[in-house]
Amino acid sequence: xxxxxxxASTKSRTAYDLINKFLDFKAYSREYQxxxxxxxxxxxxxxxxxxxxxxxxxxxxxxxxxxxxHKERFKNYLAEIVEADASVPNVSEFVLAAKRVExxxxxxxxxxxxxxxxxxxxxxxxxxxxxxxLDTMLNDDVVIIDSSNIHQLMDxxxxxEGGFQLxxxxxxxxxxxxxxxxxxxxxxxxxxxxxxxxxxxxxxGFCIQGKRGLYIGNEDKNDDIYFRIVACxxxxxxxxxxxxxxxxxxxxxxxxxxxxxxxxxxPGNVAMVERYADKFDPEYIITDQMINFNEKGDGLNQILGxxxxxxxxxxxxxxxxxxxxxxxxxxxxxxxxxxxxxVYMSNTEVPANCDLLxxxxxxxxxxxxxxxxxxxxxxxxxxxxxxxxxxIIPQLSRYxxxx
Length: 403
Known about the structure:
By secondary structure, the chain is α/β, with parallel strands linked by helices. The chain has 2 domains: 2-141, DNAb Helicase, Chain A, CATH 1.10.860; 169-401, Rossmann fold, CATH 3.40.50.300. The chain has helices spanning 2-11, 13-22, 30-45, 54-62, 68-83, 91-113, 118-130, 134-138, 150-159, 169-174, 195-208, 222-234, 238-243, 245-254, 270-280, 300-318, 349-352, 364-368, and strands at 184-189, 213-217, 260-264, 284-288, 321-327, 356-361, 371-379, 388-393, 398-401. Strands 3-2-4-5-1-6-7-8-9 form a 9-stranded mixed beta sheet, with helices on both faces. β4 (284-288), α16 and β5 (321-327) form a beta-alpha-beta unit. It is globular and about 70 Å long. The termini are far apart.
């Protein structure tokens, strides 16, 4: 069966995405896992590819295999993939059948090892046995709220403080501490206004809170961003970090740096972010920035719309917090207080795809004083739209409240 799975994955990217979403590649042979990784690398590097080139896949594999006998075995394995029977139009039914076989194997192994997961796996197996299609499985994500559970829901909602503090603290106070997983925050500003410094401040804050997350960088040089995160977390300036990087790293680690994984993409897309979310299971994802994503669309308006919608859907479906950066339009230049219409190329689509829209603005006097104004252009989190004046400490890439 695994040959047919790989055959469908090579013939269609859509089939690959579906297979990658539902099937656990670790449940299959070593050969399968290596070809699967090569396919993932291929599709990640060529977001526009609708199918995989097996010659390239073979090339990727051969660079990682040294033993001539193993190379010959993989050549034969790839030939078997080409010859395998795989119906791409019926891939949903095929994946459902493969998932049943996969779970049956896991149940058998768990029972033999008595690892304590038997009950959970048996329940999953029984559920998938009753499923008539993948759509049935997807419907399990639907949350139903009615009068029977409204009192419990309301009590939990009022008691919940959200779970995420969005630094600087003055901003979190304005949000009444209610920012939570499932929310999508979009931050916009014109170039050189401090978007990345804001993202670094937010990331450092989440580290301190013990959160586990991803920072997607496709704008600036990768090591520059990571350096800035270390500086912000440690409270040591760039020069101080250069003089004693071991001390800076030690302080940053003590304050939670290990919970942050940085992913440099060039330029990446939402599908890639989803795959890494599968791998790392983050509590939050910071995207710096959406406009660089390689999404399909006629013009930047559609591209930004697809990127912002995809990231919001990802946040809601997985219950994680999304923080995404976007450019500001020319109309935002030189202004302290920004509006939805100041979002670059998308003054309706992008704001529609977030729960909190923050514009970073400043006039000439503010720039001279390293001050900024945060405009809460859209705020479904607490409903407070009043602007917030803050200060940037450039040497730390850190936002603070005005003292």
